[in-house]
């Protein structure tokens, strides 16, 4: 079971995430590497929102391969190369999390760049492996 931690005696989160997440009764954890928006055909979509959507699809595949899903998400770490990319990233993140019953912990950082200049977003995730096949 996962429970979003948003204590009433502190400021609420800035966006759709929780200050922390409690995980109870899990079989393990899946941790992803930072994912960049590289499609299987080697192309890179233009713009932060398109890149984030592709990355979230990749995260879905990795989590599925690890026996879990975004429904069991603990944490997202995201990196963008400019504040101007934050709205596109956040729109894709919020769409990806729309059906999730709890909010994960989240960190968003602005960095100076990635391995190739066309990449503007990188995202990594951590999720629990549920105690049964409920993923």
Automatic annotation (TrEMBL):
GO molecular-function terms, A-Z: deaminase activity
A Pfam family annotated for this UniProt entry: Ribonuc_L-PSP
Family: Belongs to the RutC family.
Domain of life: Bacteria
InterPro entries: RutC-like_sf, YjgF/YER057c/UK114
Organism per entry: Primorskyibacter flagellatus
GO cellular component entries: cytosol
Protein name (record): Enamine deaminase RidA
